[in-house]
Predict the 3D structure of the following.
Amino acid sequence: MTPGSCVLIGAPVDSGKRRTGCLMGPDAYRVAGLPRAFAELGHDVRDAGNLAPDPSDTPADAPAHLHGLAESIGWTRALMREGHAAMNEGLPVFLGGDHSLSLGAIAGVAAHAAETGRPQFVLWLDAHSDFHTPRTTQSGNLHGTPLAYVTGHGGFDGFPAVTPVPEENICILGLRSVDAAERAVLQGSRIGRHDMREIDETGIARPLSAFLDRVAAAAGALHVSLDVDFLDPAVAPAVGTTVPGGATIREAHLVMEMVCDSGLMTSLDLVELNPFLDERGRTAQVMVDLAASALGRRVFDRPTRAYG
């Protein structure tokens, strides 16, 4: 990736699920050295600080079981606005915060892509498909809804209107936890999806390479969403939604290196880091290292880590 301007947008979103702690994520990334890592790669880094949600009300007919709905709507509005604006400055990097931050982050960058005549693509690195709507989620946790929202599905009363991302422009890598209702909807969609069984059998490079080729052919804008639970919890324990059998460190670095080599990434989010569950900052450091790989760090540049 050619060095350029990066805008760090702290998004201490903690309303998308009931287990708290992700609000500490943005500052954990800073302490783990993310701004310094990007600057050492030659990027011009501006830290915009931490956002706050817009004031919002709960829609009158909202399902009663939804958690943090008004706050999530407020975060979506704020992140949509800030993400859209940051695209005019460089590459926005959203520091989360739970995965509901992608409701606004992707909506904002997709609106910018539409204004510039580019199709928006999304690489979703996650154990979950997050394809519920507020009407279909049984848990009531809105961090499981971003892909339904940004593809234009209904049920998001009170949320801002979006420029829909075509389903075929989305690729999910690392799936290993999808409930029955969500699976049925996902199978009827045009979203590209690759579970860990497929990755075990064919490797992670093949489906990613095919997707990146499609983005390049369309001259598309690429948003990359990296959830901590994409990784195996043995190497990244600081997440409230652990699912065994995730990507290895090498698989994750390969993904980010391939994204970097493609030169296609136009925005990035790092989500679901809960520092309260971490071990001496281990997961925060892994996520910083992966983000650095996406922005140009090579194998020979990687520092040795000591956790003792």
Q: What stands out?
A: Residues 119 and 220 are 5 Å apart (CA to CA). The chain has one domain: 5-299.
